[in-house]
């Protein structure tokens, strides 16, 4: 499950290294508009509404004024997203637009650098500019650092020799600094974060949210068409998590993310509700239904038959993306009254236009009664570790009536049973929480005839700037911190099996849970011990001839053991050989997630 929150997109998996790169959605002539930027030496900088902006989507530019009588290097720098990772094995691509607001006789070099906050220069490039350039002109340079400082306290800077540029004014717009990206995709993903997720072998990617789909208001809702095409045509928006989204990670980039990580999208459409509790009136839904149809056609339409699909083709992807699931809104149990008509119109129209799509409802299952009756619901739960253990049998009692369930957001977030969102929330997952989640997940496996997908949420968190915790994977400007819940998700994902094998059922409300699956010649036994004591188990595999050795991969630690920037590898999976037979015993450590792989004939 992904959404741009906690700088998980901008400043996270989206590889752009410069923060506030295009002064989107800021108020000109304010200090706040300059966030992440700072002047160097006697230069003065200001964000202005440009009299001739770079594009309609980017009305603001950076005005550099070099006072008369200046000497030495003057200009400005960007601090990145709480740091810039300078790596000498990478070549960085830097770009920006500039123009002189009025012709001048200036002729000189702009120096573009990567340097430490204390002035150590790691990479430098220069470009000659002339004061006769009064229309927007793009600069593109490559930067190759000569060393790899351990510290990420580095800046991207643009400077000019103050003496020769004395009294000059230059406008700048749309900066960008990219390192190499995951699978080399242009405008792509941060390699280490994308690789970490790829190594979990996820099957699907839910986008674009979550709250961030809905908008804190109607005007700031997520709109697919504002997130595609040339970067200078993307206005950005105030996201739902208290910061401006560049929308550089837009709908097409999300689709490429799915393609590059071999996942299929579960894509949401805005369904007429924003988080200020405003619902579009029933008789005014048509334009938003059309916008949803266009969004879907951008992803799967025929370029010869649909404008949005033709746009996709023109951007380099004529063939459709593999989309099966479309979610109508997000958490509409907050607005189930209006969802009754919103669902009817969205589901009615979308299923008429795209009869093969599986539409997911986001209200509580069958409450309220919806028409058409949803075949798919998205359930969310944030609870205590104990809740997850006690609800391992949550889906066992669900009617098998042709309805399928997506456990779209779940996580153990707190041990505060009276208010999981109150005091005592987890900042990082820990083994008490992760083993509880594993117990719940054995139940999802046992009920995989009706649970078609499940995803921990939220996915990513920049440790320098976050709102919601815990998250599956944390990171800073140069490191990735997979959590105990990440390893739990990964253990279940890469040891999935293709067939559920019935076994003795765990004790409801107990502390020990397991599920058994099979993948051709391997029987896979997943065990969650949510208690404080190790538990010995006896497995009997009747009517299967079993080889004598197998492996056990164990993730275990104390209840509060947790991976964090301070203790990044406190809890890691350990794999060892174990003795196996038609009947064998295995001891699951306290607070552990265990995967046994048993070779069979
Ligand atoms: O405040 S919440 O509604 O609990 O927010 C949750 C639910 C929402 O879908 C998602 O964006 C967020 C955290 O993952």
TrEMBL record:
Pathway: Glycan metabolism; L-arabinan degradation. SMART domains: Alpha-L-AF_C (SM00813). Residues 425-592 form the Alpha-L-arabinofuranosidase C-terminal domain. It catalyses: Hydrolysis of terminal non-reducing alpha-L-arabinofuranoside residues in alpha-L-arabinosides. Its EC number is 3.2.1.55. The keyword Signal applies. Keywords: Glycoprotein, Hydrolase, Signal. GO terms for biological process: arabinan catabolic process; L-arabinose metabolic process. GO terms for molecular function: alpha-L-arabinofuranosidase activity. Belongs to the glycosyl hydrolase 51 family. This is non-reducing end alpha-L-arabinofuranosidase. The lineage of its organism: Eukaryota, Fungi, Dikarya, Basidiomycota, Agaricomycotina.
